[in-house]
Each structure stands twice: as structure tokens, then as C-alpha cells.
Amino acid sequence: MTTKSLPQPDREEIRVESVLQALGEPVRLQIIRALADAPQGIACGDIELPVTASTRAHHLRTLREAGVLSTRTDGTRRISTLRREDLDALYPGLLTGILSAPR
Amino acid sequence: MTTKSLPQPDREEIRVESVLQALGEPVRLQIIRALADAPQGIACGDIELPVTASTRAHHLRTLREAGVLSTRTDGTRRISTLRREDLDALYPGLLTGILSAPR
DNA sequence: CGAATAGTTCGATGTTGATCGTACTACGAT
DNA sequence: ATCGTAGTACGATCAACATCGAACTATTCG
């Protein structure tokens, strides 16, 4: 069992436009909320979503490339976690504000 | 000199997806930053933007309909202000987090 | 009134992006 | 080695949207 991380921007490369654009999509917001409830990370497939697997992969890639989440490989599974520390450092309050919104 | 406000969603009608999507566009983010620096409001045309007047109007409408800003008519001018109170109440920290981002 | 100014609306165009199915890769188990 | 599972990559399609120019509205000024 190995563990490898997928490419993602460094903290200083994260741009607020990309983060906001990434978060401004209903399915992706749903993903973020699921991740926020699972600080230890969650397998992509375990998130209930109204889209097919390939669309799900597309959204996860978008979020990862924007710097919103981190993905590591664990066997055949991909475990994603929110990059809470980086986001809080860059945009203090942003994540909390978004997550406090009524669902 | 009359003053009339343009239609906009009530606070409880504002949806976080719309807000994020509205903010996730470079030109619109530029507008928001200008508004944040002008609490008393600013005329649309006085914001320096790399787009034509009609595109500017389009973005201002998007932001207004998302609930991000308020526009009132003042003579031939349209004065826009950030709906900071509403946004802070709905998503505490969100606006601050966004505005604290490096330009 | 007519002209100038500030801004919007409309229609067209090009680009971006969300979605899907299919084919593919990687890993684990039998 | 073969099979099943988890997920990604690719190509196509369709909808959403950013942009522009031109025509329009509304207000102020002369």
C-alpha cells in the first residue's frame, strides 16, 4: 500500500479567482461540504453526487487545480481532503463564511 | 434629483452559489474591490475596467442579481454599493477573506 | 426644444465549461 | 494471469456566459 499525492498548486500559487470560480458550482460546493464534514479525508466515490463518475472526476480535478483540495492515492482509491490550512491562511474567514451558509 | 433603487434579491433570497459564481470572474472581482474602497458608493463609469460599457453593465447586473451589490439611480448616474451588511450577516468572514487576498 | 451624457438592452459571436459514454490505467484479490 | 473495482482521460455535445457594437432610454444642460 503506497500513498502518492497528485499535483496541485503551492499555497503561494493559489489565486482567489480560481478558488471562487471553483466553489461557485453547485456540485463542487456539495463536494466541499462533504469534505468539510470529513477532516480525515474521503474517497471520491463515497460522496453522493447527482453526476456520473467521469463528471465527478472532472470536478475533483478542477477543485484540486484551483488549490481547494488535496488528493492522495491509497490503493485503488483517491482520498481527498480540504486544504483548510492553506485557504485559511490565504483568505481568513472565506471557508467558514461559505460553510456557514444555509444548505 | 430623485433616487430610485434597482430590483435586487432580499437578504434571505441570496444564494451562496450565485454569490460565489458572481465573484469568481476577474472583472467582477475588480468591481468588488473598487466598491470595497468606496463605502459611500461609486458610479459605474468611474470604475476602471478593461471592457466596454455594455459588458460593464452586464457584470453589474450579474452582481446585483446575485445580491452582492446595490444600485440606485442618481440623475443619469448609477451608484453602486457593496451589500456588506447582508453578506456579512449571511456569510461572516467571506467578504473579508476575499478582500484580504493579494491582488 | 435639441444636444450631450450615462447607462441599459438586444442580438450576434466566440469561448468556456458541464455532462456523458467509452476506453483506458492502476491496484487488489482469487 | 485474470477478473473486478476505483478512478482517470478523451472526444463529443450542448448549454451557459463574456464580449462587442448598435440602438435605445433617461436625465441634465443650454
TrEMBL record, chains A, B:
Keywords: DNA-binding, Transcription, Transcription regulation. Transmembrane segments: none annotated. SMART domains: HTH_ARSR (SM00418). Residues 8-102 form the HTH arsR-type domain. InterPro entries: ArsR-like_HTH, HTH_ArsR_DNA-bd_dom, HTH_MetalResp_TranReg, WH-like_DNA-bd_sf, WH_DNA-bd_sf. This is Helix-turn-helix transcriptional regulator.
